[in-house]
Amino acid sequence: MTKIAWVTDTGALLTPAFIAQHNVHVLPLNIVFEEGAYRETIDITHKEFYEKLRATKVHPTSSQPNFGEHVALYESLKEQGYDVAIAIHTSGRQSGTASSAPMAAQQAGFTSYTIDSMIGSYPMQKMLEKGFELEKQGATPEEIVAEIEALCPRSELSFIPANLEKLHKSGRVSGTAMFLSNLLNIKLVISYDKGVCVVTQKVRAEKRAKKAITDLLDKALTESSVTEVAVIHTNNVEGALAWKKELEVSYPNINFIITELSAVVGALTGEGTLGLSWVRGE
After folding, report:
1. Chain centroid to CA 176: how far?
2. Domain 4-153 classified CATH 3.40.50.2300?
3. Which residues pair with 189 in a beta bridge?
4. Residue ranges per structural domain of the chain
5. 157, 220 in Cβ contact below 8 A?
6. Segments in the chain forming alpha helices (H)
7. Residue 229 pairs with which residues in a beta bridge?
8. How far apart are CA 163 and CA 8, in angstroms?
9. At a CB cut-off of 8 Å and minimum separation 6, what does 57 contact?
10. Which contacts of 134-138 are long-range, i.e. CB under 8 A and separated by 24 or more positions?
11. N or C, fewer C-beta in 10 Å, the chain?
12. What are the pLDDT tens digits along the chain (282 aa)?
């Protein structure tokens, strides 16, 4: 059998247990504060990140993994005897990681397949799980890649930013939208659409924003099956748990789990963001 290495980035924010169990190789995205860059989960914990985010006067930015680090990973995989790598990366419209991956593998002289997930977070984990399942069944790398890519358009993620100031500073939300949000308690619902985050709803109050997201879930349920939904958040476990309990009453046939978002997302949407993510069945 072909020996496959599995690669992703911290946009998926896999748990340490998941990484160890499946031997996933994770490239860290960078969070750049005024004093320098920090590799997510390596140089800075999420607790430390949010402490710095609250204290900083200069909004942090983010960047893709260091290219040299990317090349070194593929060189290491080659030395370890892997035949090929399948890399699942954060949306190429949001990060340059997916476009850098083939160049890094080529420079290392290693065969790889790069999948642009067109999203981030929970769906990336489901794509990996699908890949592991197909690998156990003896599927070829090409067959595995085709099956995973079929999940991309069926993956959905919507969230309610906790802080439009961060999105405004990053250039993703206008000053007018931020002003109206603060004045009128306007909440935005942002969803991934073909790899790009777009504002899909503007509503008064968080309750209506949550309803707008569950309406999207209801729509998905009319089109196909959804057996599991992730309640996603940025350092807001309490809020995620409360929403999960509400959802379990309304959707008794769905398994709800809680998943934290990457600190790179937290830098943009603010601490306290909540949302939902799922992958529709065929």
Report:
1. 28
2. no
3. 201
4. 4-153, 155-279
5. no
6. 16-22, 46-55, 67-79, 97-108, 122-136, 141-151, 164-169, 175-184, 206-223, 237-250, 263-269
7. 256, 278
8. 28
9. none
10. 135/4, 138/1
11. C
12. 899 999 999 999 999 999 999 999 999 999 999 999 999 999 999 999 999 999 988 888 899 999 999 999 999 999 999 999 999 999 998 889 999 999 999 999 999 999 999 999 999 999 999 999 999 999 999 999 999 999 999 999 999 998 766 665 555 554 545 555 555 567 889 999 999 888 888 888 899 999 999 999 999 999 999 999 999 999 999 999 999 999 999 999 999 999 999 999 998 888 999 999 999 998
Tell me which residue has tokens 């959707």.
251
What's the residue count for the chain?
A: 282
Instruction: Report the topology of domain 155-279.
Output: Hypothetical Protein Tm841; Chain: A;domain 3 (3.30.1180)
Residue with tokens 């997302």: 265
**DSSP 3-state of 91:** coil
Tokens of 185: 């308690």
Q: Look up tokens 């998905």; give the residue.
A: 220
The tokens for 164 are: 């439009």
